[in-house]
Design a protein that fits this description.
- This protein is α+β, with helices and mostly antiparallel strands.
- It has helices at about 5-10, 10-45, 45-50, 75-80, 180-190, 190-200, 220-225, 240-250, 260-270, 275-305, 305-315, 320-350, 360-385, 390-395, and strands at about 55-60, 70, 85-100, 105-110, 125, 135-140, 150-155, 155-165, 175-180, 230, 230-235, 255-260.
- Strands 1, 3, 4, 5, 6, 7, 8, 9, 11 and 12 form a ten-stranded mixed β-sheet that branches. Strands 2-10 form a two-stranded antiparallel sheet.
- Strand 7 and strand 8 form a beta hairpin.
- Helix 1 (about 5-10) packs across helix 2 (about 10-45).
- It starts with a helix and ends with a helix.
- The model is unreliable at about 210-220 (pLDDT under 50).
Length: about 400
């Protein structure tokens, strides 16, 4: 005799709804792990995709992702002269929020040095890489932008030529790749009225300044000199150890140098750490709540079958057999709840505003957790079933 099968046979709707409720609870537990994994992946996305061996940032800072860093654009030229450096390019990131098509959009702009990097490494789901030094950008699809759509930034219209998916910043903002010159212009742009006021305060003429639009021709590196970027990325020659180049750069007092692994560590232990601990706490609370709910459900289900259990005892059933049936009932309930959780999760997580990454480990972990919760939750029901007096049947 199996109590769970008996429940399913005689109270299908009630048993299914109970399992569905547990499944929704397990779905939240599953989502907590997936959201954290997505958060870590978003935080380290650019470090992984850019593939730089070393990151050169402002001295004394832990930029460019964990905190703000400003270095001169010309630093890339200095770094290129260091033996062992195959390539060095400026990196700039800056978050903007603009009104577009009567809606607010947030973009994390990333500047790519024109000619040197046209964004051909960026995984696109539609469109193409950058082909013009100005007014083109590749945006993440989460921005709501479409291929060919024009967005006004810094007084100029930028055309979306490529779309990516899941290329977002740590804050979940859609990333927009454009040339470094355009990115710096967007970052430092001031409306003509603001420039006029600034000139007036400095005792200059209030005549309108020249148009902030960059020249139509490709921006030469010289036009960026004097500007500041977030960092400089270093790609080493084959066979050159990062520590070797880093030791040479350590003699420069105006910079700090981090390896890609150290950038990972700065993000995980700094930016993501509190989120990780908070999600871990919520996950622990959900586990405790799930255990208590399973206990209550199994206890109530056992209470409803006291007469049947007493009859079994009167017929000679041992307590071990009675306890085993209650445990089977808890496991069956947990199995259905687990099935509902994985089904709901796979169908709904794609609509979450932040990325939820599920791995085989998450599914195995949830299965083990459900087994633990249902086993622990059945303890109360087993204790109740064992205490049932078989004479209850004889007394009516």
């Amino acid at each position: 005799m199996n109590l769970a099968l008996k429940d399913i046979a005689y109270r299908r709707t009630s048993f299914a709804l109970t399992a569905l409720g547990l499944g929704l609870l397990f779905t939240i537990v599953l989502a907590m792990g997936g959201v954290y994994r997505g958060l870590v992946d978003d935080a380290t996305l650019l470090v992984n995709r850019m593939g730089a061996d070393l990151w050169v940032v402002q001295a004394g800072t832990r930029g460019p992702f964990a905190e703000m860093s400003r270095v001169s654009v010309s630093l890339a030229d200095r770094v290129r002269a260091v033996p062992g450096v195959a390539r060095a390019q400026a990196f700039n990131t800056y978050t903007i929020q603009r009104e577009h098509d009567r809606k607010l959009i947030r973009l994390s702009t990333v500047g790519l040095p024109w000619e040197q990097d046209r964004g051909e490494w960026i995984p696109l789901i539609a469109g193409r890489a950058l082909r013009s030094p100005h007014y083109e950008m590749i945006a993440d699809v989460s921005s709501g932008l479409h291929i060919g759509e024009k967005v006004e930034l810094a007084g100029s219209l930028y055309t979306v030529v490529g779309l990516t998916k899941w290329m977002v910043s740590l804050a979940g903002d859609a990333t927009a790749f454009m040339t470094l010159g355009d990115a710096l212009e967007v970052q430092t742009y001031q409306p003509p009225a603001a420039l006029r006021q600034a000139r007036a305060r400095n005792g200059g003429t209030d005549k309108l300044p020249p148009s902030p639009r960059p020249p139509a021709a490709p921006s030469p590196a010289e036009s960026l000199r004097g500007g500041q970027v977030s960092a400089v990325m270093i790609y080493l020659e084959p066979g050159v150890a990062p520590e070797e180049v880093r030791a040479r750069l350590a003699q420069w007092a105006d910079i700090s140098v981090y390896t890609a692994a150290e950038q990972h560590q700065l993000l995980i232990e700094g930016v993501v750490d509190k989120v990780r601990r908070q999600m871990g706490l919520i996950r622990g609370l959900l586990t405790a709540i799930s255990t208590i709910i399973v206990m209550l459900i199994i206890y109530n289900m056992t209470n409803e079958k006291l007469h049947d259990i007493a009859m079994l005892k009167l017929m000679g059933a041992r307590s071990r057999m009675i306890g085993g049936m209650v445990l089977q009932q808890a496991w069956m309930l947990g199995l259905l709840g687990y099935g509902f959780a994985t089904l709901i999760g796979r169908q709904s997580f794609q609509y979450f505003p932040r990325r939820v990454i599920l791995t085989d480990f998450d599914l195995v972990f949830l299965a083990a957790l459900v087994l633990f919760i249902t086993t622990l939750g059945s303890v109360v029901g087993i204790a109740k079933a064992i205490r049932v007096d078989p004479n209850v049947v004889l007394n009516g």
